[in-house]
Design brief:
Radius of gyration: 19 Å
Largest sheet: 6 strands, parallel
Number of strands: 13
Number of helices: 10
Structural class: alpha/beta
Distance between the termini: 48 Å
Helix content: 40-55%
Strand content: 15-25%
Length: about 300
């Protein structure tokens, strides 16, 4: 199904898009298009059309998005809504106009209700109110999924809608506001170790539970779905296991070598109490995540130390 295809990974400079690009480039016969923002600005509708007209990809993988932690989501709800809506609308509608046959839109487990039964099954989508701390981001993702479904319904384009849990791994930002939680913790504990700090303070209570998937595993799942000759609709992608943020912090601190104390700022929100995906549908198709969390943490620590040596 994928031989001799041209695949545009929109957002190839990001954590997820970069991992997908690396994975696709291992496949023979594929032309993987990974333009920088200077080559095609996803906010520029005409520029997106020009890129598609000149390069004629068969498949578009939309991994580009404005992302960030709880603090960033709460501080910039307008940007998290409008920027993501603009990217999604520009890329997907133009893709169909230029003859793209397959669109993969990366969703998020944030689309599930705050009080969702756990583990979260695909049929729980749109059954309750969203988590307020990232509602704008979640609404934008929901709108993107609906747009993809509408394009399939009206135009016949093949649509793939993976819903990953929290993603981590090489290629993330190391920034408390814009990085994913695991990368932010690596930065916090590594800097505390270097500085000889006796304590590290983190947001919330540490009781919230999250599931994590390494970006390389997510990329492998995306390739698996592209090759699968069936329509799965919304499909959860994760490990099916979770841990509390406090447990994650302890793991990161141990792997970094930080021996101080961990403090929690209870005035800050935890976000959704628990998010763990039911991955039984994807498992039944034959795909299972391979990266152990401890090994993945080590890869993020190694990247941080490489980028920011002592």
């Amino acid at each position: 199904m994928m031989e001799s295809q041209r695949i545009w990974v929109a957002g190839a400079s990001g954590l997820v898009g970069g991992a997908i690009s690396r994975r696709l480039e291992l496949e023979s016969g594929l032309a993987v298009l990974t333009p920088s923002r200077s080559e095609v600005d996803l906010f520029d509708r005409e520029g997106v059309h020009r890129f598609l007209a000149e390069n004629r990809p068969d498949t578009v993988i939309l991994a580009a998005a404005k992302v960030g932690g709880i603090g960033a989501n709460m501080a910039e709800p307008v940007a998290f809504l409008t920027e993501n809506l603009a990217i999604q609308d520009n890329v997907m509608r133009a893709a169909v106009e230029h003859g793209v046959s397959t669109i993969m839109f990366l969703g998020s487990s944030c689309i599930y209700p705050r009080e969702c039964p756990q583990p979260m099954r695909e049929e729980y989508y749109m059954t309750g109110a969203l988590e307020p701390t990232n509602e704008s981001y979640a609404v934008a993702k929901i709108a993107g999924m609906r747009l993809a479904q509408a394009l399939h319904q009206e135009m016949g384009v093949r649509v793939l809608l993976p819903l990953p849990c929290n993603v981590y791994g090489p290629g993330d930002h190391f920034d408390p506001a814009n990085s994913h939680v695991l990368s932010a913790l690596v930065m916090k504990f590594e800097n505390a170790r270097r500085n000889g700090d006796t304590s590290v303070t983190m947001w919330g209570s540490g009781s919230a539970r999250r599931e994590f998937i390494h970006c390389d595993d997510l990329a492998d799942a995306c390739l698996f779905l592209l090759r699968l000759d069936k329509d799965l609709g919304l499909i959860n992608v994760g490990t099916g296991t979770d841990q509390s943020i406090a447990e994650l912090a302890t793991l990161v601190a141990e792997h970094v070598g930080y021996e101080g104390t961990k403090e929690w700022d209870h005035t800050k929100p935890d976000g959704m109490p628990r998010k763990v995906l039911d991955v039984s549908r994807l498992t039944a198709e034959g795909w299972i995540a391979q990266t152990k969390l401890e090994d993945g943490i080590d890869s993020v620590i190694a990247e941080y130390r490489s980028k920011f040596p002592e």
